[in-house]
Amino acid sequence: MSNSVPISGLGKHIRASLVLGLPLIGSNLAQMAVNLTDTIMVGWYGIDELAAVTLATSIYFVFFIVGSGFAMAVMPMVASAEGANDKKQVRRVVRMGLWISVLYCAALMPILWNFESLMLMIGQEPKIAALAQDYMRIAQWGVFPAILIMVLKSYLSAVELPGWVLWATITGAVANALLNYALIFGNWGAPELGIRGAAIASILTQLVTFLVLVTYANFKPQLKDYTLFLRIWRPDWPAFREVARLGWPIGATMLAEVGLFSATAIMMGWIGTRELATHGIVIQISAMSFMFYLGLANVATIRVGRALGQKDLGGIHSAAAAVTMLQLGTATCVILVFVLFPQQLIGFFLDRENENAAAIIAYGSGLMMIAVLFQIVDGLQAIALSVLRGLKDTRVPMLCAVFSYWMVGMPSSYMLGFLFGFGGYGIWGGLVIGLAMAALTLIWRYRIMLRRLQIQL
User: Fold this and answer.
1) Given this model, what pLDDT does residue 4 score?
2) How many independent structural domains does the chain possess?
3) What is the CA radius of gyration of the chain?
4) Which string of DSSP letters, residue by residue, matches 82-151?
């Protein structure tokens, strides 16, 4: 992704990227563990319930990720302001990021409340659609703290204080596992609530994590100068517009990618309940690996954003190259795990006594081999997107993403899955094609931006 850089500069950036990246990767994994725990425990509870939660969380995540675009916009803006030592601008950006997030969540609620009707319109089985709505009408209330957590996480990461984000998220993940165990199955004297219990556990987890981060951001001595929550009710329309301008293309880009994965869940649902449940398991496993790439991508945004604020072209080169090297090494390790232990990974999500378990493990092992193919391209496109966000370039990358995922990836999935008769394996093959195209177009855009910066800086 980068032109040649001095070895010393590259080594320094690799070390700095690891120091910042490891807590971010850990917090991403801990956050993902909330959804992972839901999937595992609901899978133990029943296959129909697993299919319903897979469907609900796939669509919920689409809406969540669009709103997260505004939170993600906070990260490069704060990083650039930090690079220029402008604490007032940091405060303005974060406050308006919180404002926009609350407004977005409020607008989302009526859509999520009528989830069953939406699922029936797109051809899902009535029984699964009804179960999915039972889950969603509770889980939807967690979208407020969930997206506000993303804003605070972007802020704390950009000022390079990600450690508490990690510990707060780990605490939330542990609490979620305990609450799931109690409320899904009726353990420890709690009522047996099934998937409703999983939804309640997720909400409580998000609330606890949010309150911990608010407390830390407000009382940490090192953050006192930012006075983040002082008169937070006062609007700052210029900063509001700036966050919105940068954030909506990020949200649209993330929607294009996550929407592609959610659309594959819908297509798997057309094939059958067992295939949809299997898809949900392998997607969760792949999403866990993506948390490594996402943590490194966040590092890229922060390091590149700071270098941009300091007008350091060499720093931009080195930051991009360092994170790319780390991503390629991580992807290699993930591929080895996927190839060597597919059945064991899938087995974690199932009750082995269930009559469908053997078929799901066999089918899922094939999907895992296809997931191997997109580890490198998925990571590369995530890094390229984040480097461009650090450069505050979001609109053209959005167009690249929409083209790659929906004009290339989606038709490929449908054609391979249904027209050519490869079923679920063909649907997943289309994912590989779309992600590869995204990686190519975004790296092309990055090189164009470098040439422009060489003239401007």
Assistant:
1) 40
2) 1
3) 21
4) HHTT-HHHHHHHHHHHHHHHHHHHHHHHHHHHTHHHHHHHTT--HHHHHHHHHHHHHHGGGHHHHHHHHH
Answer yes or no: pTM beyond 0.85: no
Does residue 409 register a pLDDT over 90? yes
- Cα–Cα distance between 302 and 160 in angstroms, integer? 8
Show the tokens assigned to 108.
């989302």
Containing H/E element for 71? helix 47-83
Per the model's pLDDT, the better-predicted residue between 364 and 258 turns out to be: 364
By CB atoms closer than 10 A (0-12, 13-18, 19+), residue 62 is middle
- 364: Cβ–Cβ under 8 A, 6 or more apart, which residues? 278, 281, 282, 342, 346
Could you tell me if residue 191 is inside a domain? yes
User: Would residue 1 count as lying in a domain?
Assistant: no
Q: Give yes or no for residue 258 having a pLDDT over 90.
A: no
Q: What CA–CA distance (Å, rounded) separates 162 from 448?
A: 31
The reply to whether 349 falls in a domain is yes
- The reported pLDDT for the residue numbered 6 is 42
What's the pLDDT tens digit per position in 75-97? 888 888 887 788 888 888 898 99
- Rounded mean pLDDT of the chain? 84
Q: What is the extent of the structural domain holding 33?
A: 7-456
2 belongs to a structural domain? no
